Amino acid sequence: MTLILAIESSCDETAVAIINENHELLANVVSSQIDTHRLYGGVVPEIASRLHVENIGVVLEQAIEQAKLDLHDLDAIAVTKGPGLVGSLHVGLQAAKTLALAYRKPLIGVHHIAGHIYANNLVDRMEYPCMALVVSGGHTELVYMDRPMHFEVIGTTYDDAIGEAFDKVARVAGLPYPGGPAIDRLAQKGEHRYDLPRPLHDKTYNFSFSGLKSAVINLAHNTRQRGETLVMEDLARSFEDVAIGVLVDKTIQASLDYKVKQIVVAGGVAANSYLRESMQKAVESTCPDIRLSIPPLWCCTDNAAMIASAALEMYQLKQFSDLSLSCKPMIDLEG
User: Domain 127-294 adopts which CATH fold?
Assistant: First the structure.
């Protein structure tokens, strides 16, 4: 029985998970720093790395106890190599390299976005060729995969990532960090009342959200200048209608053009209820022969289970790293 331990520390979660060859999670422990960073309105890199140093040993110990295993039982040690905050990545990487060296286990360096994509394997085995919509605070990409661990980025954002746009709109609306969940909750109570521009409405697979973000900022400023009041629920719904609509439309078009068998949604914004609902409806009405996979809410945000899932694929393909592996905060998914 293959057993892989994975460590994730790319941003503000310290996480360790253990998986077996049947994609069964034997342990999944996450220590979140969100309450600390909320005080500053966003992640503070130096604080994040210090908290990782404090938490990594505790989280590792809890995962081993949860799995009822000994470190000698493992077949490989996996870790997020990038992208992410360099200080945060460094903590997880040093822990993984120490374990690999001390227990003489193979080391597997995993791309963070590959982890998000392979989170879908924890609930619904991926089928190729497939199209992945990656949506998070730092990424908005369409990724075509014709076989396991082979990524072709066919579309990306020219400016803001969708998660970043959510956070900035939330700030304009006076909502707390992180902005995505707050916007999503408000939008459920609102109506599409405000006329916002549809960004990069073309035949490419690329995205742009800075214009939409600026339109929301200008709308808020002009409304207040006139002494009027913005209905925040309606603003949230109007923003989601436009932003999510672009994501869904381009994903469906790319999937039809590339004749894929499956669409997978990945990343923190995959937790957005409107995106999940809209994608489901679009697939059912436009391309019912294509399977849709969206990970459960618990593995949309950063966690080590997704890194373990991707590492299991890499272990089977014998894609190992040596102890010279270093942090790669800006690493390309296709690299």
Answer: Nucleotidyltransferase; domain 5 (3.30.420)
The candidate with the shortest Cα–Cα distance to 133, out of 308, 260, 242, is: 260
Kindly indicate whether the domain formed by 3-118+299-316 is annotated with CATH number 3.30.420.40: yes
124 is in an annotated binding site: no
Q: Is 72 annotated as a binding-site member?
A: no
The ranges of the chain with pLDDT < 50 are none
Measured CA to CA in angstroms, residue 271 lies from 134, 202, 267, 274 at distances of 12, 26, 8, 9
42 appears as a binding residue in the annotation: no
Coil, strand or helix at 162? helix
Closest-CA residue to 162 (of 187, 183, 191, 193): 183
Q: Which of 115, 89, 117 is nearest to 13 (CA)?
A: 89
Q: Is 135 annotated as a binding residue?
A: yes
Q: Which H or E run includes 7?
A: strand 3-8
Can you give the C-alpha Rg of the chain in angstroms? Answer: 20
Q: pLDDT per residue over 53-88, tens digit each? A: 999 999 999 999 999 999 999 999 999 999 999 999
CA atoms 181, 183, 187, 192: torsion sign: negative
Note whether 3-118+299-316 and 127-294 share their fold. Answer: yes
C-alpha distance across the termini of the chain, in Å:
30
To which H or E segment does residue 174 belong? none
Tens digit of each residue's pLDDT (9 = 90 or more) over 83-127: 999 999 999 999 999 999 999 999 999 999 999 999 999 988 999
Cα–Cα dist 327/314, whole Å: 18
Residue 195 assigned as binding residue? no
**Is 139 annotated as contributing to ligand binding?**
no
pTM above 0.70, yes or no: yes
Query: Any idea where the domains of the chain sit in the sequence?
Result: 3-118+299-316, 127-294
Whether 109 has a binding-site annotation, put simply, is: no
| 167 carries a ligand binding annotation | yes
Q: Confirm or deny that 138 is annotated as ligand binding.
A: yes
Residue pair 305/85 in contact by the 8 Å Cβ criterion: no
For residue 1, the model assigns a pLDDT of 87
